[in-house]
Design goal:
single chain, alpha/beta, binds pyridoxal-5'-phosphate
């Protein structure tokens, strides 16, 4: 048997038929240049991470655990310097006590805003979970309850910033601006770091003292630059997404201007204590090693996203971003206009997972959603979306959002398996696969 046949046989044993395998191979062959460009970004970011670790003298002692108050925790303090260095901030807060991305964002907002201040989102509606943090949906402990008001300026129909609207919305109360880099579950393009920079310059031109925060979730290491280099004062993200590299089992980070980061620390622990306390509880090695792997894990996820975009685009489905567009986060959506196809896709992703591959995802009524939701995730870390995962609400237009993949080959297998499930149920136009 030739090498090609051997590989095809291996996939066949895992349930991928010859037609699906060969269609995938054809698509993959056309992506060499895209993949090469991702590799270059990953190489750049890998060197950036290593340089930061060397400069701050990461050593074996940094992986020791602390408990109790966690005073003088060398591993924690060094890690925060490494994050600050990597993301070009003055300081960073990187903690297992930050439970998720929403918590990190809530900390950054609740600690830097005071009663009477106003928060502005100049890029439309923020991520769903932030609605309750802000008080767009009434919620206990929201910014609104503390007397912080909110304004929003939507993007223009063509996706551009509404500069006039933003200028009019800024007033003497405006203290902070929140800019979400990734589109999340909204239908708008993800913002490049360059576009974020233009928006921040515009705002700082009107009022240089406004604190510009970027929700950096899913964006880390996708480009060579991060938003702090484009003028943001704060960036915020989750460690079970990009920067945890799949190894961090929990956590979030805030990086940027020293004063803003310290405010967040005083809110996370206590006034007077700030960054000085917070035991690292044995997490440090996974945080360091995850950050070290993050550039190549993000690289794998990007390859998977572009592979899927090209596969499903070739089959006639709407994909966002499209197969050729430049990438600014790791999220890919595919619109099926058909609940069975959406379900089949998720079942394929699940069936290809290293964990829980024998489980069949079924749509269910998740709290907070007005329709059933289907999810596929066979992850080592619960809810980790840097691992290959897919989800979406089971309602028109039946769009699935998927992301992640710790390795490119697993992402590829997952996407082939998703197509296999559609193929078996005659939910794709087989003529397009020749
Ligand atoms: C995931 C995400 C969040 C929230 O993070 P959780 O860890 O799920 O709480 C916020 N904003 C964006 C853009 C995200 O993608």
């Amino acid at each position: 048997m030739s090498d090609g046949q051997r590989m095809r046989k291996l996939y066949e044993n895992l349930g991928i038929c010859r037609e699906v395998y060969e269609f995938g191979s054809k698509i993959e062959r056309n992506l060499k240049e895209r993949f090469l460009a991702f590799d270059e970004t990953a190489e750049y970011n890998q060197m950036k991470v290593i340089a930061a670790m060397q400069k701050h003298r990461v050593s074996a002692e940094c992986f020791q655990t602390t408990n109790g108050y966690g005073y003088n925790d060398l591993g924690r303090n060094t890690l925060e310097s490494v994050y600050a260095e990597c993301f070009r901030g003055e300081d960073a807060l990187v903690r297992p006590q930050i439970t998720c991305g929403t918590h990190a964002l809530a900390l950054a907002l609740l600690s830097n805003l005071r009663p009477g201040d106003e928060l502005l989102s100049p890029v439309g509606k923020p991520y769903d979970t932030l609605e309750e943090v802000i008080g767009i949906r009434p919620s206990r402990g929201s910014l609104l309850e503390y007397g912080v008001t909110y304004r929003q300026v939507d993007l223009l129909p063509d996706g551009d910033f509404d500069y006039d609207g933003i200028k009019n919305a800024i007033n003497e109360k405006t203290k902070m601006v929140t800019i979400q880099r990734s589109k999340g579950y909204a239908v708008r393009p993800t913002l490049s770091v360059e576009r974020i920079g233009k928006l921040i310059s515009f705002i700082k031109n009107i009022r240089p003292d406004i604190i510009c925060m970027t929700d950096n979730c899913y964006g880390e290491f996708v480009e060579e630059k991060e938003p702090l280099e484009a003028g943001a004062d704060l960036i915020v993200g989750s460690l079970i997404k990009n920067p945890g590299g799949g190894l961090a089992p929990v956590g979030g980070y805030i990086a940027g201007r020293k004063e803003c980061v310290e405010n967040a620390a005083y809110r996370l622990t206590s006034p007077g204590l700030g960054k000085e306390v917070g035991a690292s509880l044995g997490m440090m090695q996974s945080f360091y090693q995850g950050l070290f792997l993050a550039p190549s894990v993000v690289n794998a996820a990007l390859k998977g996203a572009v592979f899927a975009a090209n596969i499903y685009e070739a089959l006639g489905f709407d994909v966002l971003p499209n197969g050729a567009e430049s990438r600014h986060d790791i999220i890919q959506s595919v619109t099926f206009h058909n609940p069975d196809a959406m379900t089949a896709f998720c079942r394929g992703i699940q069936a290809a997972a290293p964990v829980d591959s024998h489980v069949t995802p079924v749509p269910w009524a998740m709290p907070g959603y007005d329709s059933d939701v289907i999810m596929a995730a066979g992850a080592f870390v619960q809810g980790s979306s840097i691992e290959l995962s897919a989800d979406g609400p089971l309602k028109p237009p039946y769009a699935v959002y998927f992301q992640g993949g710790l390795t490119w080959h697993h992402a590829k297998f997952g996407i082939l398996m998703s197509l296999q499930k559609l193929y078996e149920q005659n939910l794709v136009n087989k003529d397009r696969m020749c």
